[in-house]
Amino acid sequence: MKIIKFDAIDSTNSFLKELAQKSIVENFTIVTTNEQVAGKGQIGTKWISEKGKNLTISIFTKYKNILIENQFYLNFAVSLAIFDTIEDLNVPKLNIKWPNDILSANKKICGILVENSFRNNQLISSVIGVGMNVNQTKFPSDLNNVSSIKNCINKETDLEVLLTNLQMKIIHYVDLFQKKKFDFLKETYLSKLYKKDIPATFKDSNQNYFMGIIKGVSNNGKLQILLEDDSIKEFGIKEISFA
Predict the structure, then answer these.
(1) Cα(66)–Cα(118) distance, rounded to whole angstroms?
(2) Is the pLDDT of residue 148 over 70?
(3) How many angstroms separate the CA atoms of 197 and 202, rounded?
């Protein structure tokens, strides 16, 4: 398994995607950097990280005989790999916030961006971007819902050891995905899902507020919410947020 290290780069995901287009990339190749100057989050958002303090990586994975319709199970697998890695550090009150943020005590400590490539009707490869707040303790004032592992456990974490542990977890869970252990991945993911089965207030893309209860996630990745009229409605990414 190859690891490519940079002191600074615009985006590890962008670099790895371009590399995969130009050459044959070994499965589970990792690109990591001390500083990412144009990091990407979900739906065009930016990921901001203090140099040398956090884990900023992208991992290339490839598959055989995985249909496009099953691609979201990969999000389950990746979220669980990162959840387990952080849990091993005794970080308290961990949850996975749909679709794939990792929270501790309701504050985000890790973001994930999965970018998939397809051929015909099959998923052939992915670039998995991980931005994990590890040893950074101060964040911009407008990011009041963000924290780090150090803030949670009051000690620094060795980034090299953390990377190795994460790599092993990713390999394990992606192997489960490749073996089509979809039911197990979904069931385990839902057991760690933030606010599942708890009444909460949501806001839709039209800025309308409503009460609901998260009941699950559909196989195509949409959040399933039980509404006050006892109907269940599905929402895609950016169609809903917690109020």
Answers:
(1) 10
(2) yes
(3) 14
List strand residue ranges (DSSP E) for 92-218, in order.
94-97, 101-104, 107-119, 122-132, 199-204, 209-217
Which residues fall within 8 angstroms of residue 18, CB to CB, at 6 or more apart?
A: none
d(CA 20, CA 28): 12
Q: Which tokens is 210 given?
A: 């409503």
Is the pTM for the entire model greater than 0.85? yes
Q: Token pair for residue 213?
A: 């209860």
State how far the Cα of 225 lies from the Cα of 172, in Å rounded to an integer.
30
What domains are there in the chain, each with its CATH number? 3-191 (3.30.930.10), 199-242 (2.30.30.100)
Task: Give the amino acid at 196.
Answer: K
- For the chain, helix, strand, coil in percent to 5 are 30, 40, 35
For the segment 158-202, what is each residue's pLDDT rounded down to a tens digit? 999 999 999 999 999 999 999 999 999 999 999 999 999 999 999
* pLDDT (mean) for 77-93: 98
Take residue 66 and report the two structure tokens written for it.
Answer: 């995985």
For strands 3-9 and 30-36, give the pairing: parallel
